[in-house]
Amino acid sequence: MIILKIAIDAMGGDNAPDAVIAGVELARDEFKNVEFVLFGDEKKITALLKSKERIIIEHTTEVIDMNDEPVRAVRRKKDSSMVKAALAVKEGKADALFSCGNTGALLAAGLLVVGRVKSVARPGLLSTLPVLDSPTGDGTFNLLDSGANADSKPDQLYQYALLGKYYAENVRGLKNPRIGLLNNGTEPHKGNKVTLEAHQLIAADKTINFIGNIESRDLLKGLCDVVVADGFTGNAVLKSIEGTVSAVMSLLKESIMSSGLSGKMGAMLLKPAFKSIKSKMDQSQYGGAVLLGTKAPVVKAHGASDAKTVYYTIKQIRTMIEGEVVPKFTKYLAENETEEKI
Amino acid sequence: MIILKIAIDAMGGDNAPDAVIAGVELARDEFKNVEFVLFGDEKKITALLKSKERIIIEHTTEVIDMNDEPVRAVRRKKDSSMVKAALAVKEGKADALFSCGNTGALLAAGLLVVGRVKSVARPGLLSTLPVLDSPTGDGTFNLLDSGANADSKPDQLYQYALLGKYYAENVRGLKNPRIGLLNNGTEPHKGNKVTLEAHQLIAADKTINFIGNIESRDLLKGLCDVVVADGFTGNAVLKSIEGTVSAVMSLLKESIMSSGLSGKMGAMLLKPAFKSIKSKMDQSQYGGAVLLGTKAPVVKAHGASDAKTVYYTIKQIRTMIEGEVVPKFTKYLAENETEEKI
């Protein structure tokens, strides 16, 4: 049996190390071919662990927190759990990096420590979101780049289309995934300078099942499996979906609270329906955000992750490693020399 | 009494001319100082009108529809209701232009026929959206540019901050409105090339009550009265709010339909609460989208507008003219010569 190794930043996140350890143990008990290298306070970690089976602890003395300036923290906090975990991946001692900590710092650790695949100019962040209706899909779509880069070039968007395709095929198991380009209109002549040119580049690659432009109003409708965006717009759209769901749910709560007895009775009867919406729209169950384009998977789960989210994200990482997503797209990109164009 | 004149494209929109005429008559009956110049099929209009009081009909033979390519339509359909209405504004025969028709064509008619204020490089589209909570505001915020331009420069964003300020002060009656910049992080050092520079420009103008960057996840929270964005991101965020509200509402409906008798009873009891949310999130009640930076107000209401929306939009236009929004910011811009920087 091939043993996969995942480097875990045990100290990152609001509920660390407790939730991280609990999630790791859930995953360890289920995935017998995975070994975990936990970076963090050895005493605390040992006290929390039920069993040390397939678990290695690497003691570290520093923690990068949410208020740290990302690049500076990665450069200065040399003995932090996150940087040490990234170093282990760089040195080939682990196959992937996982953290619930500071997103910016994790992106920096991915780029500066783990390192990018040579032909990928700018790794992008891939997020997974739910769709309402997906007769041909799997109930989700990937948004890429959802925020790793503030400024993007057309060639980078073309690479995201490729990276997203390899992810959807090898992690989600989709055949010929439908790729769309986030744009300000569906017609091919719509767009800004970057999306107009990116549209042409993606359309020209016949290995990509390109369905054309998609508007943000249609994102949740399941029209495609992967949505390519520049990191600035992708980030804006991701956060606006999140903010709008939470706004509508709190409006609903408010309306119910002010609608008297009948409203409250109605709310009680509808509890299961509300719960199912909340769960459907809760992004954490769909795993972590993946930095794609680095030499090994770098995966970030929400800062507020609980043990279950940690477990799901480890499951996702395992599928990424087993599906050989990174080796596959690295090979394709090397053979097709996209770097020249950038 | 000063008589204001509004040029109306009576043939634009899904429900034209019926809904347009009905809305105009509602407004005519309430706003005694407004005169309406209706452009369109004279026969049809006359048949629908209850009274011709303060209504002038200008017969036109063409209509720009939703499938027309905007710039080409404005150039070729010289006798269309929209182009003739725009010409009337250009020639000083009316103070503002109103249409429920093709948005792209109306933007083109605004730029090419009505014309931009000399010092405004690129007029921007201002939309009005609801906020959940606004202890110091009026329950809405303006998003500007929400889609007139696909590519924006920092100076243009600075001008949108000014245009938005004048709009909020003179149309919404807010004192010292809070202006925010849509960005990928709240810290001043966050952003892409355009927003980083725009942040500095806006912050440097002490006449602007700049609250700094705002993330799209916080848009509906009422943190500011005007949100400045580049047109591409503004458009993406606007449409993603729209799409998410509609997705959550249809998820709710679906959950209720599949939750048996108790769910359906609950839904009945909650009908008033659902209705209040739908109405709160319905953008049409907040009036039309305004092209700001043209020599006279150019206002677009939703294609599906009914008489009530037409009425509300006319009310908004009347306040814009009476509040002298365009003359005021034109004067400020001329005195401060921002064009040099662009």
Automatic annotation (TrEMBL), chains A, B:
One of its GO terms (molecular function) is phosphate:acyl-[acyl carrier protein] acyltransferase activity. Its EC number is 2.3.1.274. It comes from the Bacteria. The keyword Disulfide bond does not apply. It is found in: Cytoplasm. GO terms for cellular component: cytoplasm. The keyword Lipid metabolism applies. Pathway: Lipid metabolism; phospholipid metabolism. One of its GO terms (biological process) is phospholipid biosynthetic process. Its main location: cytoplasm. Keywords: Acyltransferase, Cytoplasm, Lipid biosynthesis, Lipid metabolism, Phospholipid biosynthesis, Phospholipid metabolism, Transferase. Homodimer. Probably interacts with PlsY. NCBIfam families: plsX. Catalyzes the reversible formation of acyl-phosphate (acyl-PO(4)) from acyl-[acyl-carrier-protein] (acyl-ACP). This enzyme utilizes acyl-ACP as fatty acyl donor, but not acyl-CoA. This is Phosphate acyltransferase. It comes from Ligilactobacillus ubinensis. The gene is plsX.
